[in-house]
TrEMBL record:
One Gene Ontology cellular component annotation held by this UniProt entry: plasma membrane
Keyword tags: ATP-binding, Nucleotide-binding, Transport
GO molecular function ontology, one term from the record: transmembrane transporter activity
Record family assignment: Belongs to the ABC transporter superfamily. Macrolide exporter (TC 3.A.1.122) family.
Residue span(s) of domain ABC transporter: 16-240
InterPro entries associated with the record: AAA+_ATPase (IPR003593), ABC_transporter-like_ATP-bd (IPR003439), ABC_transporter-like_CS (IPR017871), ABC_transpr_LolD-like (IPR015854), MacB-like_ATP-bd (IPR017911), P-loop_NTPase (IPR027417)
Keyword Protease: no
Pfam families: ABC_tran
Name of the featured protein: Putative ABC transport system ATP-binding protein
Coiled coil: none
Length: 240
């Protein structure tokens, strides 16, 4: 009875909750603390920019939030589910269903067409082929690449490849969208258009987005700015 009521429905509560998160690396027999007690909370539909100097631990934090890596201590809840308590396989399945990841260098599979790249998370989640095809068409339209499904990634510009990567990241309608320097490999104009697209998609679809960036302009579209410094998170609760 208590259990039945204790578990909130996915639509309720914050999408992401982090408590006292810790991560250190061993290097040459020495322990280097990178995250030294991170607390954070992100509500549904919020856009968060994660800033911090090089080496401050931004990618480390993002990888923990994605369930790619495991913390040494602390709690990570995505839609109320404890990621830090899951084993490797459970985390992989969870990530496949509930997390979308956008990389600086796009990470498209070069031997697959654009449509096949976008369909990957749908395939992994057992979406039937027919539905996959119509979803991919729809996603291509959403990212401004209608009719380009048959192309291979190397025939596309950097900005176009990132659009494909965004379509792939949102294809399975993840609860949490994570982006690691999504404009880091693009010129300023193309980067600005990619950020506008991400912002519009996040706003229209109510997606929750945490993105690492070095750029103040990128951070300006966020609802909140977090700055990582010496293993701790400085929460900006106001607009940048
Ligand atoms: N697998 C690892 N083993 C050992 N040390 C690591 C590992 N991954 C990261 N580090 C170290 O942890 C620190 C934080 O790295 P991280 O990549 O998270 O920083 P970052 O803020 O994303 O940096 P950048 O902005 O340059 O990408 C760095 O000092 C890095 O050398």
């Amino acid at each position: 009875m208590a259990n039945a009521t204790a578990k909130a429905a996915p639509e309720e509560g914050p999408v992401l909750q982090v408590r006292d998160l810790r991560r250190a690396y061993e290097e040459g027999g020495r322990r280097r603390v990178v995250l030294d007690g991170i607390d954070a909370r992100v509500e549904r539909g919020e856009i968060v920019a994660l800033l911090g100097r090089s080496g401050s631990g931004k990618s480390t934090l993002l990888n923990l939030l994605a369930g790619i890596d495991r913390p040494d201590g602390g709690e990570i809840r995505v839609e109320g589910q404890r990621l830090d308590r899951m084993g490797e396989r459970e985390r992989t399945l969870f990530r496949r269903r509930r997390v979308g990841f956008i990389y600086q260098f796009f990470n498209l599979v070069p031997t697959l067409t654009v449509a096949e790249n976008i369909a990957l998370p749908l395939e992994l989640n057992d979406v039937p082929a027919r539905e996959r095809r119509s979803r991919v068409e729809d996603l291509l339209g959403q990212v401004g690449l209608p009719g380009r499904g048959g192309a291979f990634p190397d025939a596309l510009s950097g900005g176009e490849q990132q659009r494909v990567a965004i379509a792939r990241a949102i294809a399975h309608e993840p609860a949490l969208l994570l982006a690691d320097e999504p404009t880091g490999n693009l010129d300023a104009d193309t980067g600005a258009r990619i950020i506008a697209l991400l912002r519009d998609l996040a706003r229209r679809q109510g997606r929750t987005l945490v993105m690492v960036t070095h750029s103040r302009e990128v951070a300006a579209v966020a609802d909140r700015v977090w700055t990582l410094c010496e293993g701790r998170l400085d929460h900006g609760d106001v607009h940048p």
